[in-house]
Amino acid sequence: MISWILLLILLISCVCAGALEVNVSQPLYQAEESNNVTMEWKFPPEPDRSTNSLFIECHLFTDHRVSVLYHLHEGIEFPGSQDEQFSGRVQCDRDVLREGRLRLHVSRLRTEDSGLYECEVMTKQGWGADECRLTVTATVAQEPHTTTTVSPEPESQKEWLVLLIALAGIVIVIMVIVVVILVMRQTTRPEIIAVITAVTLVVTGVVTGAVIKLYNNQL
């Protein structure tokens, strides 16, 4: 309420002085939630004068309400008139006010900060205002990246080497048994030869099964 009364008094006092040209640097600002943004307005500078005669008031207009963003009167900031929505999140670059530049830094943006921003500036030259729009988009949560672990394929060369060694062993065993059988046919009865032949078949089957099992384990 006090800021509106002060604004009314200054408006009355500046009627005779005329209009002041105030221009926003860009009409549209876009940013993501939780980021920062800097909005800038320009007005005729008064380098030979202090900021004690400067009045600035900035508002956010939405469909539901009007909020005070920043308030400066005769060079003194009034944080008490600032809306709670912007408490601790708005800073003005006081060093460039003499240059005719109003720069407002809004940090930790929220989606409800979206809307129309208007800044009114009053000096001894007059009164003026300009507006811009800020759009704050919500941050999209990224899905956690899942890494699929692929088991390394068995080395083909190693598989073939193992297989060849096993087959070579089988061939050697069979050849030895055959030689023994051929020798014993001349000096041994047929019953013994039959037993040796049966044992040879059993041993060959066991070795062959072991090789097959080893190969399957490697796959």
Put the structure in a nutshell.
By secondary structure, the chain is an alpha+beta fold. The protein has three helices and ten strands; from the N terminus they run αββββββββββαα. It starts with a helix and ends with a helix.
Question: How would you describe the overall organization of this protein?
Answer:
The chain is an alpha+beta fold and 219 residues long. It folds into two domains: 2-137, Immunoglobulins (Immunoglobulin-like), CATH 2.60.40; 156-218. Helices cover 33% and strands 27% of the residues. It is built from three helices and ten strands. The protein has helices at 2-13, 156-187, 190-218; strands at residues 23-24, 28-32, 37-42, 55-61, 66-73, 76-77, 90-92, 101-106, 115-123, 126-137. Helix 2 packs antiparallel against helix 3 (190-218). The longest helix has 32 residues, at 156-187. It is rod-shaped.
Topology:
Elements: H1 2-13, E1 23-24, E2 28-32, E3 37-42, E4 55-61, E5 66-73, E6 76-77, E7 90-92, E8 101-106, E9 115-123, E10 126-137, H2 156-187, H3 190-218
Parallel strand pairs: 2-10
Antiparallel strand pairs: 1-3, 3-8, 4-5, 4-9, 5-6, 7-8, 9-10
Helix pairs in contact: 2-3
Sheet with most strands: strand arrangement? 2-10-9-4-5-6
Q: What's the main sheet like?
A: 6 strands, mixed
- CATH homologous superfamily placement of the largest domain: Immunoglobulins
Strand content: 25-35%
Cα end-to-end separation: 82 Å
Task: Write the element-wise H/E pattern from the N-terminal end onward.
Answer: HEEEEEEEEEEHH
